Amino acid sequence: MRFFYKRILESRVKKDIRALSKEELQDFFVSQRLPSFKGGQVYQWLWQKGVHDFELMTNLSLRHRNLLNEYFEIKHINIDFQQRSTDGTIKNAVKLFDHLVVESVLIPTSTRSTACVSSQVGCSLDCTFCATAALKRMRNLNADEIYDQVVAMDQQSKLYHQRPLSNIVFMGMGEPLMNYNNVLSAIEKITDAEALGMSPRRIIVSTSGIPKLIRKMADDKVKFGLALSLHSARQEVREQIMPFAKKFPLPELIESLEYWYAYTKKQITFEYIVWEGVNDLMEDIQALVRLCKRIPSKVNIIQYNPIEGSSMKQANQTVIDAYISVLTKSRISVTYRRSRGLDIDAACGQLANKGDVK
């Protein structure tokens, strides 16, 4: 018997079963002198059917379900509170096994349903325009907690919109790349044909810009898309709105994006908010154009969503129109995304629960 399983069997503390791989589940059953395919059945119940109770694994005998209950537990999430916007957006307060809370958002349109997923309780960074950044980072989410958010919003989409999820964006609470291993592990389960089976081409991971981890994603040959929360192509301006950028200067960040494209051949989406008196000059527009010409990319201009305690204001519409005009004339793909869920504080940058259920 492997030491790993001897330790499980001798321990008085139940292990979270979703921390085990399919192969480890199979080995556990073998260690109990049972057929290895039982591990495959459990894996399917956990990751394809999303069950949170061993008693619901009906193709296992009572003896086998009791065996699982003896040694394992399932630390699943619960939707503690749900808010629905007038535009159909749903914001979830997601209660974790240790009573901490994150928020996730289901964003429906006429043709798709997008899940906006959180990866940390609080955030590791200090972006001045984001409510989540004002919260203390309490911990990273486990892979199964990320996965559970997707399952919950898939069920909500089927219930309220009669269709499954079509897209997933890692744009909720936290910096995904600062929780690298768990985020990638969750995506593996989300895209696994034996689990949710979603296409990686419908998944976008959004980062504020950690160069060495952008390179690592390329080296790991990930199949999902990459978005960068840019907001300025000028270092001095970017430092003003994203102070952590002092540690990751634009030249280093640009090199990592070039590395990403060279290895993946996937263009980058630059997420960009335009603020009055911050990045509303022609100099800012021209800097963005130069960057886009250097790296195959598209620009997604995002409506600014005010947050408590901030004096930042969205730039005049004429400035936004100027951005769109210059980018378009430069043959750079650009879209302008208006916010969803503003009336329930579910829009981009507004997710800011206090990390605890009262």
CATH superfamily of the largest domain: Aldolase class I
Distance between the termini: 45 Å
Biggest sheet architecture:
10 strands, mixed
C-alpha geometry: elongated
Spans of 5+ residues with little confidence (pLDDT < 50)?
354-358
- Per DSSP, the total helix count is 11
CATH domain topology of the largest domain? TIM Barrel
Q: For the largest sheet, list the strands in their spatial order.
A: 3-4-5-6-9-10-11-12-13-14
Please report which band the strand proportion falls in: under 5%, 5-15%, 15-25%, 25-35%, 35-45% or over 45%: 15-25%
Mean pLDDT: 90
CATH architecture descriptor of the largest domain:
Alpha-Beta Barrel
The beta-strand count equals 14
- Number of structural domains: 2
Find the structural class using helix and strand composition. alpha/beta
User: Using only CA atoms, what is the Rg?
Assistant: 22 Å
Oligomeric organization of the protein chains:
single chain
How much helical structure, as a percent, in the residues? 25-40%
* H/E series: HEHHHEEEEEEEHEHEHEHHEHEHE
